[in-house]
Predict the structure.
Amino acid sequence: MTAAATQVPAMTLAGLGFSFGATAVLSNLDLEVYSGEVVACVGPSGCGKSTLLALLGGHLRPTRGTVTPTGASRTIYQDGGLYPWLTVAANVALGVPRTVDDRARAARVADWLARSGLVEFANHYPHQLSGGMRQRVELGRALVADTAVLLLDEPFSALDYQTRLSMRRELAATLAERPRTVVLVTHDIEEAVQLADRVVVLSARPATVRRVLTLPPGRPRAPNAPGVADAEQLILEELGLS
Amino acid sequence: MPSRPVAPLWRWTLPLAVGATMVGAWALASATDQFPRGTVPAPAAVARAFVTELRSGRLFDDVVASLYRVSVGFVIACAAAIPAGLALGRFAAARAAFLPWVNFFRTLSPIAWIPFAIIWFGIGDPPAIFLIFLATFFQVTLATLGASAGVPRVYYRVAADLGLSGRQVLLEVTLPAILPQLLVALRVAIGVAWMVVVAAEMIAVRSGLGFLIIDARNALRMDLVVVGMITIGAIGIGLDALFARLARAPMLRWGSER
C-alpha cells in the first residue's frame, strides 16, 4: 500500500515562493505530501529543486506562502554531507537524537552498521570509503534518527550506475520496512519513476508545479514494469525533452 | 604531473648524504685554507665547541630559554588569534573594520617592534614573548579566517538537521573542519616564531640561542656561532616535524588525503 492511499497530509506547501534578492526561484508552488509517500521532484537544471528542499528542511524561509509543518526531518545531501573528521560509526551516531542514552545510541549504530554491511568499516573515515559506502553512511545517519520525514537532495547522483541501482533498491527496502515520508529531488527521471509514488514536474525558474504524475503501486519499479515507460515519456514531454 | 614518492629508506639517506657532502666540502675547504683566517671555523673545531657547550650545560639552558619564549608567545598568540579569526569569519562588519588592519600589522616585520618591545617590557622574557606574539598572531588570525570561510555550507546544514546548538556547532563542526588548514598555518607560524626569537634574543635578553650567537660573535668565537646556528636549524626541523606529524593524525588526515 502506498501512503498516498492513506491521504494524511504530512507537509503542505501553499502558495510557496522564494527569491534570492531580485531573482525569483520558486513561485506560487502548491503541493500536499502525504504521510508515508515518496514524492520525487524533477525539473530543468537550476529550476530551484534544491532550494525547495532547503525550504522543506527549514534551512531557508519562504518569501511568500507557507510550508507546514516544518518539523524534524533529515536530509541526505548529494555529496559531502558526512563529517570527514569522524569515523563511520561516529558519523552514524551523530544522527541519533541527543536525548537517546549512550547505550541505546550504540545499539542503534551497531544495528545499522550490521544491516548495511559496514561493520568492518566502522572505524574508517569517509575519505577511505567508496562513493556508494559514503552514501550508505549518509543514509544511516539520517535513518537512525527515526524521523518521519526524509529529504533527499540528489542523493545518488555522484555514484556510478551500478551503485546507483543498488542504492535505490536499498532505499526502497528500508522504506518498505519502516515507511517514511520522503521528498526526493533528482534530475534522474528513471530514478524518480522507479522510487516515487508521485512525481512532481517543476517548470523552469521561477519554478512552479507543471504536472503531478501518480505512479502504479510497488517500488522500486523495474524499468519494464507497467506504466514506467509511459511515465518517463510524459515527464520528458513536460520538460520539453522528447 | 607529480613525481613518484621517494622510498622510505631514501627519505633518510638522501638528506644525510647531502649533509655529509656539505660537511665534507667544508672540511676540505678548511683543511686547504680556502677561507680567510678566522672567518669560518673548521668542522672539527665546531664539534669540539659543541661537546664543550653540551658538557657545561649552557647549550641546554639556552635551548630551554628559547623554547620557553617561543612556546609562551605562540600559545598566547594562538589563544587570541583563533577566536579572533573565527569572529572575523562570522561577522561581516568586524571583517570590514579589522581586516585591513590585520593585513597592515601582518606585513610589519616583528623586528621593527624591537625598540618598542624594550621600552615597554624592558629586558628579559617579556619583550621576546611580545615579539613572538606579534609574529604569530596576525598570521594565525588570517589563516583561521580563511579556513572558516572555506568550511562547506553543507556541514552547517547537517548540523542544523541534527539540532546542534551554537556552541556544539563551534566545537564539533567549525573547529574540526578548519583544523587541517589551521595546522598548516601553525606549522608556518612556528617557523617564523622560531626565527623571530633568535633575533629578539640578540637584542633584548641575556640567554637563549640568539644570545649565544651574539655573545660568541662579540668574543670572536665563530665555532660557537656555528654551534648556535646548527642547534637553531635542528630545533626548527624538529618543530616542523612535530606539526607535520600532528597533521597525519587519523582525524586530521582527511585534510590532505581526500
